[in-house]
Description:
This protein has helices spanning about 45-60, 60-65, 70-85, 85-100, 100-125, 165-175, 190-200, 215-225, 240-250, 270-285, 305-315, 335-350, 400-405, 420-430, 465-470; strands spanning about 15, 20, 25-30, 40-45, 130, 140-150, 150-155, 180-185, 210, 230-235, 250-255, 260-265, 295-300, 355, 360, 365, 370, 390-395, 410, 415, 435-440, 455, 460, 470-479. A 7-stranded mixed beta sheet has the order 14-17-18-13-12-20-21, with helices on both faces. The chain has a 6-stranded mixed beta sheet with strand order 9-8-7-10-11-23, sandwiched between helices. About 55% of the residues are buried. It is built from 15 helices and 24 strands. It has 2 domains: about 15-255 and about 455-479, Aldehyde Dehydrogenase, Chain A, domain 1, CATH 3.40.605; about 260-445, Aldehyde Dehydrogenase, Chain A, domain 2.
Amino acid sequence: MVYEQTDHGRPPTQLYIGGAWHDSEDGIEVRDLTDGTTFATVAAARHGQAKSAVESAVGAQRQMRESTIPERAEWLSAIAEGIADRTAALSETIVREAGKPIPSARSEVDSAAERFRRAVEEARNVEGSYREGTTAGHEGWKALVRPEPVGTVLCISPYNYPLATAALQVAPALAAGNSVVLKPASNTPVSAAMLAEVVDEVGLPDGAVNLVTGRGSEVGDALAGDERIDAIAMTGSSGAGKHIARESEMVELHMELGGNAPLVVFPDADLDEAAAAAAKGSLKYAGQRCSAVSRVLAHDSVHDELADRIDAAMGEWNRGDLFEESTDIGPLIDADHADWVEQLVDDASERGAEVVRGGDRDGTWFEPTVLADVPREADIVTDEQFGPVCPVIPVEDETEAIEVANSGDLALDASVFTSDYDRAMTMADRIDAGAVRINGAPSHGLADIPYGGNEDSGIGREGLGVTIESFLTTKTIVL
Length: 479
């Protein structure tokens, strides 16, 4: 039996390799963030099992490469429906293992299903071309140029969007005809196991999708360093991304990593809209998002008023039972991360920042926090916080705003609030970021618009269409 029954009646907790479920001699306890108990104990793969997963994926490459677009479309549609059919169970799982309020968890499940549905249409756009030679000596040559899957893709998903991010990697990999090894975060592996269960029921070729749960330092290194892996798709921290890049050496890398998004506000902006965007951008999923608003750079003339309005906007966010529809914000992923957020807030306060709201914690719960007059030398200005904290930093003009926005090594997202079109476009051009949104908080939506980062915030761009392209190579057949 695949299920390990606990007090909550848990879903799969085994490894999924070569189309079958496997136990392991070791296990990882997954903490239930709603009550602090053990949510599930999942198998922790050994080195040999990680290698077996790669071997199974490689063995499925030929069948996947020879699959037709209609076959892939049928698989993707069935996976989407399988996810939708498990909305209630998947939502509960995400609440417990990731600590998201139930509305947010349900939205993530819907997003994951939608990504597989949209991958169907993107798969139908995968087509080759026919070309004729035009240079001297090549007249009359004819060639077929056709896309082919790269082979085996290692998908490494993060804890903050355990199902949606896995879908954003696995769906385009399958759409392109690749086989997959999925390695979820050790904090949040259960929703990925449920995705593997859906795949098992759909009936893909054995080994087309493999799930390897385990500790990243052991399993991740074994997988990334395997020379049979042809491409790696990863979402997570920049430090982990650099480590995986070193382990993987010459494979195709596709990474969306950390962020420290600035939200720049000028005097001619709609301050209510800017404050609402700053509050939501800082507090959604307790700030544990790469695209979260991590810094507000406010013009001196509106700094105080904006900080007050952000404070008021945060007052509308509710803490409570994560299964209550009215709850807006939950805990941080673990105590170590709460320690980090607390350290950044304390550092800013000690350097002269004013704590307008919050600043305290209760275990892994960190209060929604607004800091005003944050000095540029505070660590929170340049370090990724991943917490429900909105530091407001005064800036004199566009030049200083750009200097502060571009400080640090992360350059994923940014936003600018102004009613001046020329200023907006100038700022968007000069801020170092993969994406800049005008008069709105950064958002990746359903990933139909390419996104990704510069500097230490990633390699390449994500989004179903561009991700499929990155999982394809080209073969030319000259006739």
